[in-house]
Amino acid sequence: MNKKDFPWLYDAEYMSYVGGLLETPEVQKLNEFTHHYISTRLLHSLNVSYTSYKISKKLGWNKKATARAGLLHDLFYYDWRETKFPEGSHAYVHPRIAYQNAQKLTTISKLEKDIIIKHMWGATIAPPRYKESFVVTFVDDYVAIKEWTQLMKMKWKHHKLFKKEKLS
């Protein structure tokens, strides 16, 4: 494993907060779901969690809650593109499902609950109550955009190769 590709594995403090959660079958199951077309839901959640943790650590905020809730913010097991809910959109429903699933794994603090439930703020009405919740919300958006950008780069690269082959 490469430290550049998996920096969280080499951060002892971060792993002390999330290592136990990462070992659970429920969190590992997230690796079975494609997320934002290019990542798995587990890798996406790790990127959100670790980046949010680093920001909170630098600012002197609650890095443990940010790391844990960042990891658990998308703890759901369905393809959001195919599943419809009578309660509302995926943006509204999945944070609540993630929170319910997280509660089955560990004790969730009020701060962690707010982070998980409100990480889709902007797509939902209720704003976050805590500064750490804003961090995870914005980092989640950043990571999603980064994943989308990687997908577009791959598509563009493939498009260029296809054009070259066609011209030959």
Automatic annotation (TrEMBL):
Source domain of life: Bacteria
Domain called HD: residue spans: 43-105
InterPro entries for the chain: HD/PDEase_dom (IPR003607), HD_domain (IPR006674)
Signal peptide: none
Pfam families hit by this protein: HD (PF01966)
Protein name per the record: HD domain-containing protein
The organism of origin for this protein: Pseudolactococcus reticulitermitis
